[in-house]
Amino acid sequence: MPVEYAAILIPALPLVSFLVLIFWGSLAPRTLSVLSTAMLAVSTVIAAWLFFGDYGPDGITTQRLWFSTGNFGFTLGVTVDALSTSMALIVTFVSLMVHIYSFGYMEGHEHFGRFFAFLALFTAAMLTLVLASNFLLLFAAWEGVGLCSYFLIGFYFDKHSAASAGKKAFITTRLGDLGFLIGLFLLLYYGSAALAGMTDSGALAALKGLGVNVSNAASVFDFTALRHLMDQPDFMASFGHWVIPIGLLLFCGAIGKSAQFPLHVWLPDAMEGPTPVSALIHAATMVVAGVYLVARTFFVFGSAQGAEVFGPVITGVGVFTAFMA
């Protein structure tokens, strides 16, 4: 099986599980939950297989055009590289353990099937996030993870404290996501302008040789393309001024998801959800999403234009949060 299709299967299987459970879960909740867990086990095996592959410095990226308008062609796709496969293996394995534990923990609960449906959707969203090849799909999955956290933390909706905790997590992380979204708008606007303004024919030819579609203004949303673009002085002459503000806005999203100061207040209340949910959120999924974002876009945070600013800011926020906690 081609690795690109295998990578697509990893989040697709939990997503199918969610659809089956949400529509037919009330008919045979335990049986369908077992099926959902088995499908996640298959995703885990596929992730383990991909983990041991060698994909080179750029990895393997598969993208398909979603829609286009003018010079902007927005794509959806997956990237298979060392970072995405290691995160996919962690997420699938931890989620599989949580699924297995949940059978005993949620035994006899009237919403047994619904709980497993939300677990499956959360897992699918997180896996899509770590395998996404561009900011567009990553942000969609990012919001999906946030929505699922609301459903899972507030799962005991008839309990006031749990319902309030779910709302608190959802609203607090949306504040960070607002900064993330503004950063993406700035990236698209100024990045596409810098790409359109490139005049160095040698640089443009080199970018084409690296697989960058220089005629597509939305190429700046692609992780690999943006990394190659930021290596070009012709591009950075215009875009370099915006690296710091865009990076800081992207980091706002990471702060919210990873519960860093000052958006840390939602995490203690997340314990109001069922224990498997707390394990899933705290262990290796939602809280790690912010870390993954910084790692995936390290070419921004570690760039010559921004390293002297981002280093102290990221370290300072992390250290202060650790000591304050």
* Beginning-to-end CA distance, first to last residue: 46 Å
Series of H and E elements: HHEEHHHHHHHHHHHHH
Mind summarizing the main beta sheet? 2 strands, antiparallel
> What is the residue-averaged pLDDT?
88
Spatial order of the strands forming the largest sheet? 1-2
Provide the β-strand percentage band.
Answer: 5-15%
Labels describing this entry:
325 residues; mainly alpha; 15 helices; 6% strand
Mind explaining what this structure looks like?
This protein has 325 residues and is mainly alpha-helical. The chain has one domain. The chain has 15 helices and two strands. The chain has helices spanning 3-24, 29-51, 82-105, 112-131, 135-153, 160-196, 201-209, 223-229, 233-239, 243-257, 266-269, 275-283, 286-296, 298-301, 307-324, and strands spanning 60-69, 72-80. Strands 1-2 form a two-stranded antiparallel ribbon. Strand 1 (60-69) and strand 2 form a beta hairpin. Helix 3 (82-105) runs antiparallel to helix 4 (112-131), helix 6 packs across helix 9 and helix 6 (160-196) runs antiparallel to helix 10. It is globular, with a radius of gyration of 20 Å. The model has no long low-confidence stretch (mean pLDDT 88).
Give me a quick take on this structure:
This protein has 325 residues and is mainly α. Helix content is 70%, strand content 6%.
